[in-house]
Specification:
Length: 119
């Protein structure tokens, strides 16, 4: 399965990372590198869009947890865009749905990361 991570800045120091395909032990390091790249540039508010993710294993979960920790250490946050029921279920089963803010759309994620204020 193809794996891709695309990212863009949404303004106000917010990055959107769109992930596609299988996030596993072989591909998750690319996601980690992309997150670290934004954090190294001082962008500490990140939304990871998992809408197109077809598979997520423990390595992928670990990368997301690490990104959340690093974002918060820098005074920011990391939220997930996860309208995919199958992927959302993984977060519920593992208890990670209590740790991550999971939103239905990129627009909701951006609003959340801006502190609930409209654009």
């Amino acid at each position: 399965m193809r794996f891709d991570v695309r990212s863009r800045e949404a303004g106000d120091g917010i990055a959107i990372l769109s992930v596609q395909g299988e996030a596993d032990a072989f591909t998750a390091p690319r996601l980690k590198q992309e997150m670290l790249s934004w954090l190294d540039r001082g962008v500490n508010r990140i939304a990871v869009n998992l809408e197109q993710v077809t598979y997520l294993d423990s390595t992928g979960l670990g990368v997301l947890i690490g990104g959340l920790k690093r974002s918060r250490e820098r005074g920011g946050d990391l939220v997930l865009v996860c309208p995919n029921d199958r992927i959302t279920r993984i977060f519920e089963i593992t208890g990670l749905s209590r740790i991550f803010d999971m939103l239905a759309s990129e627009e909701d994620a951006i609003k959340h990361l801006r502190g609930g204020q409209d654009g």
